[in-house]
Structure to design on (88 residues):
């Protein structure tokens, strides 16, 4: 029984740890241009180490204006964050 509980807990943690952000599917011609969006984020104090398209989202890895490591998913049309992970 303990073994079964441990397996269930590990599976639960694994599924939450790898859950991706959900951005609504929108036509690519409505997305903000990557270069413009990066400049906008840099203007807000972000240091972008990696920028990529993840599903229907823009995703960045880098640091925020406070120097904390971040991983943030953004809606590529509105530019609003939909999911973020900020290291302490």
């Amino acid at each position: 029984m303990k073994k079964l509980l441990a397996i269930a807990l590990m599976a639960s943690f694994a599924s939450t740890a790898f859950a991706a952000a959900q951005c609504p599917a929108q036509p690519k011609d409505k997305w903000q241009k990557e270069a413009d969006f990066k400049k906008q984020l840099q203007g807000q104090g972000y240091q972008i180490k990696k920028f990529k398209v993840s599903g229907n989202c823009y995703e960045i890895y880098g640091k925020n204006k406070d120097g904390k490591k971040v991983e943030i998913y953004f809606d590529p049309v509105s530019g609003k964050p939909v999911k973020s992970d900020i290291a302490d």
Q: What stands out?
A: The longest helix spans residues 2-17. Residues 68 and 88 are 7 Å apart (CA to CA).
